[in-house]
Specification:
- By secondary structure, this protein is α/β, with parallel strands linked by helices.
- It contains eleven helices and eight strands.
- It has an eight-stranded parallel sheet, with helices on both faces.
- Helix 9 links the parallel strand 7 and strand 8.
């Protein structure tokens, strides 16, 4: 992993059902994200927040879609910024913002991988697969569609920006799923996506899932993009998300995943999504997400003083 990292805030909330995600990047800053990474020996560049798109072209799609034109405009803006950042000698950290931002980040990282003639692997940590199409989404909220879009599924053409380098479903690993719509279930089965839902995690633990993915990344010398949605975590430890689903990852499961990823040195980009500070309790979710990011960048349990030793 690069010893230089760049933080880019993406204050998009047009894809979510509740307002507040636009405050996510600044909440992570308040929780000390940059300072934490600096303490681990990284050169940290905070690029501030992306400016929301100003010239929003009206686009037409299924009538039930919420804030479609705005999300389409955000997708192009995010893609361009993420791709430009990927050209630098740095590890990009994209801080959202709702998960519709992945429509831009995934396509940007796929473009980068194609230009480098290397495969892109994606680790998707989320309660939801976000694999609905524009026609299959029941809610109409577009944070449930970015993976289907990035894979080049039908129904996005002529509405969203073209996907020149579709995400390979065989290189997608989803961990933590526990809320899947029937059309998503069908698509997962057809495409053979590697899914570790919470039952599979309960039965076999998270280590096997991560080791299997990392072995494939190593064998292919691939790029690895990690997309982390707050609702991957159990709401008892991470309440600041508008789509809470009981039975999520525990504190230790989440840290173990991040520590194993850090040990591998294979992560090339990270996004943190769906943090809604309006729903938080004294900043506990932002603090936890910052601490988990620290684990991904090399912080270890022995580096964390207990309350007694810190007193």
């Amino acid at each position: 992993m690069q010893k230089h990292c760049s933080i880019l805030g993406i204050p998009v909330e047009s894809g979510a059902g509740r307002r507040g995600c636009m405050m996510g990047p600044d909440a992570m800053r308040t929780a000390g994200l940059a300072e934490t990474l600096d303490s681990l020996g990284y050169v940290v560049e905070d690029l501030g927040n992306l400016v929301p798109p100003q010239d929003i072209v009206d686009v037409k799609g299924p009538a039930h879609l919420v804030r479609l034109s705005e999300t389409v405009a955000w997708t192009q803006t995010i893609h361009d910024a993420a791709y430009a950042l990927s050209q630098k000698e740095t590890c990009p950290i994209f801080v959202g913002g709702d998960h519709s931002m992945a429509a831009g980040t995934l396509t940007a990282m796929s473009r980068l991988a194609a230009e480098q003639s290397r495969p892109l692997f994606v680790l998707w940590l989320d309660a939801h697969p976000d694999m609905n199409t524009l026609s299959s989404t029941v809610s109409g909220h577009l944070h449930g569609t970015p993976v289907a879009y990035a894979m080049g599924q039908d129904g996005f053409d002529g509405i969203f920006p073209p996907v020149d380098h579709p995400l390979d479903p065989a290189k997608l690993c989803m961990i933590g799923l526990r809320s899947i719509d029937p059309p998503e279930q069908k698509l997962i089965g057809e495409l053979g996506v590697d899914v570790w839902d919470m039952r599979r995690i309960d039965e076999g633990g998270v280590k096997g899932a991560i080791i299997d993915l990392l072995e494939r990344v190593n064998a292919a010398d691939g790029l690895l993009h990690v997309s982390f949605d707050v609702d991957f975590l159990d709401p008892s430890i991470a309440p600041a998300v508008g789509t809470t689903v009981p039975g999520g990852a525990t504190f230790r499961e989440a840290h173990l995943i991040m520590e194993l990823l850090a040990d591998s040195g294979r992560v090339t980009s990270l996004e943190l999504t769906e943090l809604n500070p309006f729903l938080d309790t004294s900043g506990k979710t932002a603090d936890l997400m910052t601490d988990l990011t620290a684990s991904l960048f090399g912080k270890r349990v022995l580096d964390r003083p207990t309350a007694r030793s810190a007193a």
